[in-house]
Amino acid sequence: QVQLVESGGGLVQAGGSLRLSCAASGNIFRINDMGWYRQAPGKQRELVATIATGGYTIYADSMKGRFTISRDNAKNTVYLQMNSLKPEDTAVYYCNADLLLRLGVRISSYWGQGTQVTVSS
């Protein structure tokens, strides 16, 4: 069974930092893009950042310069370093990965269960 397990969320004061991790496990042939999304109360889920296998990254404009996405392909893990956090960054953060489970099947998108990040003012 394929799983994406996030860790690293919590409560932090404005201006502080947190590092999220997400590890993919299970019978996976190949991992393509990995990324982070977030959903604040009453709002739609939005992109935070994505990273391709080769390291190409995309960031939402409001996260550029404050957040850094990285991955360790040997560990099937993606990270999100969040600095200079603001109260408006408060949300549930979800890990996402495009997985090929075996040759001959389509690549499918998988989601983690989410981790809460709360930034106090």
Structural overview:
This protein is mainly β and 121 residues long. It has no helices and eleven strands. The chain starts with a strand and ends with a strand. The mean pLDDT is 96.
| Alpha-beta content class | mainly beta
**What's the number of helices?**
0
Biggest beta-sheet profile? 7 strands, mixed
- Cα shape: elongated
Low-confidence stretches: none
Number of extended strands? 11
Residues in helices, as a percent range:
under 10%
Oligomerization state: single chain
Compressed to H and E, one letter per element, the order equals EEEEEEEEEEE
- First-to-last CA distance: 40 Å
Task: Please give the radius of gyration in angstroms.
Answer: 14 Å
Beta-strand percentage? over 45%
Mean pLDDT: 96
